Amino acid sequence: xxxxxxxxxxxxxxxxxxxxxxxxxxxxxxxxxxxxxxxxxxxxxxxxxxxxxxxxxxxxxxxxxxxxxxxxxxxxxxxxxxxxxxxxxxxxxxxxxxxxxxxxxxxxxxxxxxxxxxx
Length: 119
What we know:
Elements lengths: L2 H5 L15 H8 L7 E2 L6 E6 L3 H18 L4 E5 L2 E6 L9 H14 L7
Antiparallel strand pairs: 1-2, 2-4, 3-4
């Protein structure tokens, strides 16, 4: 599956009761994302750090990620500082990764692809 395929899909509601993705599925989906995404050592989340040329650009990015999260009904953990933001996706209801995490990560990749002011 390509990043373009993932970024055009919609998240499916997940209220638990399904298992997290298996390592093989995670490895396959990781190949569809920007190489800066990192899988946590425990395999339960993915994280990417972004750098920007200033505070306003950082907050603009945060607001865009918040819009994606609200639209998809799937919300990341965000760490925000001057000129930087780290985005961590994981599916809280299942305590690990679901396809929704990769769909949203691909949407963030598409959001910043070639964005001016990105370090």
